[in-house]
């Protein structure tokens, strides 16, 4: 006996629009919201007009507000994302930092930019799958993928900023029960 799954056919044999969540006749009411979310993510993926500056003007000193007020604002914006989900991104950033620290000659600036692009892509994927997550996750990685030009920007700018975001996120994360933690 063949099982049916609500559209009258065996699993996987229905119209493609229904198999893959597309909008055919009788599609769910959430289709408009899904396409809105998709457009929102596509817009967030666009490079910013002004990428973040990691260093003070005419200096290689890290801007203090990058590790303080800007990191705190980002953490507040990401408060809806569970810490374990955000740590997955942070773990990838730390793995790249370790690779750079241990063997700087084996990692090129192009490698670093590629890893930042991959983090941006993974953020978009995560936000598409978890619609309750704020679009700021995609914007965060899009901004920083545009700003990181190489190993120095990554190690001295992005990574410490992300570390500060993680620390502030622990303060502002919205716990599963609905209260702030």
UniProtKB/TrEMBL annotation:
Keywords: Antiviral defense, RNA-binding
Matches recorded under Pfam families: Csm2_III-A
The keyword Lipid metabolism is assigned to this record: no
Bias kind Gly residues: ranges: 1-12, 20-31
GO BP, sorted A to Z: defense response to virus
Recorded GO MF terms: RNA binding
Keyword RNA-binding: yes
Region ranges (Disordered): 1-58
Protein task: This subunit may be involved in monitoring complementarity of crRNA and target RNA.
Family membership: Belongs to the CRISPR-associated Csm2 family.
Protein name: CRISPR system Cms protein Csm2
Organism: Elioraea tepida
């Amino acid at each position: 006996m063949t099982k049916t799954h609500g559209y009258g056919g065996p699993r996987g044999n229905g119209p493609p629009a229904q198999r893959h969540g597309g909008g055919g006749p009788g599609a769910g009411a959430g289709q408009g919201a899904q396409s809105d979310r998709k457009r929102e993510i596509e817009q967030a993926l666009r490079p910013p007009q002004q990428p973040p500056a990691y260093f003070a003007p005419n200096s290689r000193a890290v801007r203090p507000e990058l590790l303080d007020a800007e990191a705190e604002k980002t953490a507040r914006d990401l408060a809806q994302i569970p810490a374990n989900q955000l740590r997955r991104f942070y773990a990838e950033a730390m793995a790249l930092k370790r690779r750079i620290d241990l063997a700087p000659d084996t990692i090129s600036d192009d490698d670093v930019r590629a890893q930042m692009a991959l983090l941006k892509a993974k953020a978009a994927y995560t936000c598409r799958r978890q619609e309750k997550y704020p679009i700021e996750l995609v914007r965060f990685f899009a901004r920083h993928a545009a700003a990181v030009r190489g190993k120095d920007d990554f190690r001295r700018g992005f990574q410490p900023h992300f570390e500060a975001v993680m620390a502030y996120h622990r303060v502002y994360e919205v716990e599963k029960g609905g209260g702030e933690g």
